[in-house]
C-alpha cells in the first residue's frame, strides 16, 4: 500500500486526505499549527491518522507521495528535505484532478480570480449545468471529487497550486492578468512567478482552450518565447479581437467561432474596467461550453459581488466605507482606486510581499486625501507617499485604523480598506481582516 502524507490540516489538506483514503492509500496528515475542531472531527470519524503542532520528520520522509498545502512555503526546510529525498510532491488540485472525469475550467491571474471564478460558476449554474466550485474558493476540490459527481468544476487556482503541476489538464484555462505578487516565494524574480502561472496551460492539447488578456504585455512577452497547444481566445479592453472578446465603445462583444454575443457595459452587474475584463473572460468560457447567449447576458447582469472585494459596507454621516480586504497586492489596489470617484481615505499595509508602490502614485495624487497605515512595518508605504499625501497616520489595530479614517473623513468621502499586502502580521487571513473592518465600522 502506498503511503501518502498530507502537509497542512486546513480545507484542502483534509479534503486530500479523504480522497486519498478512498483511493486506497495509507494516509497520514501533519500540521505545524492547531487543526480546527471541525476538521479534527472529520479526520477522527474517517479514522485518518494525523498529528498537530509538529512535523515528525520520520513519519513524513518515508512517504511515497506528499500533498502540500498551498500555504506552506516551498522554501521551508521540510520541503527542501522532501525534495532531497526525491519524494513526489503535488498540490491538492493536481492530486484530485487525477480522480475525476469532469471538465475542468481553471482560472488564474494576479487579480480578479475570485470574482471571475464566481462569475463563471454563476453562468454555468444558471445554464443548469451540474457544476462544482473549488480551488482557492468554496469547498476543497479533492473533498468534492471524493463525495460529489459533478460534470464540470470551476477552479480558482493560485501560482502556489501551479508550482507542483505534473498532469493537471484543464479543458479551459485562463490567465486574467499578471503583476508582481508573492515575489518573496519566487526568489524576488518576476519571471519565476510568470512561469508558474503559465503552468496552467502545460498539459493542454488542441482540444482545449486558453483564455487570456491581450492587453497584458507580460502575457504577450511569454508568447514570444513559448507556446501552448490549446486554442487561444484573447480578450481586450483596447483593440478588436476576431475570436474572443473586446470592448467596443459602450459595449462588450464576444465572438466564439460563429457564435456572437453583444451586451451594454452599463448592464453588467460589476463596475470598473477590470470587471469588464473579468466579465468578458467568464463570458468566453460560457460560450466555449455551449451556453446560450441569453443565459450568459442574464448572469453577467444579475451577479452579486464577492465579499471582501470592493464590498460597500456602510454609509455613516455621508462617509462611505468600502471593504476591499482581498486586495493583497499593488495591482488590486490600482483597480480599486481606478473605480473611486470621491476623495479617498485609504487604509493600507500588512505583510509586504516585495511590493513596488510607485505605480499607484498617479491615482494616489489624484484621489487620496489621507492614508491610514495598518501594519507592523509601514516604512515603505510612508517613504513612497510622504511627499504626495500630507496626512499619513500609523495604526496597529483595525479599531484604531477605522477610527482614524473616520475622524479624517467628511461627507461624500470614501474610506477604502485596500491593503496591498498579505494580512498575516495582524490577522488570520484577509477574511478576518475584512470582517474586523466591517465590525469596527458598525460600532462607529
UniProtKB/TrEMBL annotation:
GO terms for biological process: cell division; cell wall organization; peptidoglycan biosynthetic process; regulation of cell shape. Its EC number is 6.3.2.9. One of its GO terms (molecular function) is ATP binding. Belongs to the MurCDEF family. PANTHER family: UDP-N-ACETYLMURAMOYLALANINE--D-GLUTAMATE LIGASE. HAMAP family: MurD (MF_00639). This is UDP-N-acetylmuramoylalanine--D-glutamate ligase. It comes from Apibacter muscae. The lineage of its organism: Bacteria, Pseudomonadati, Bacteroidota, Flavobacteriia, Flavobacteriales.
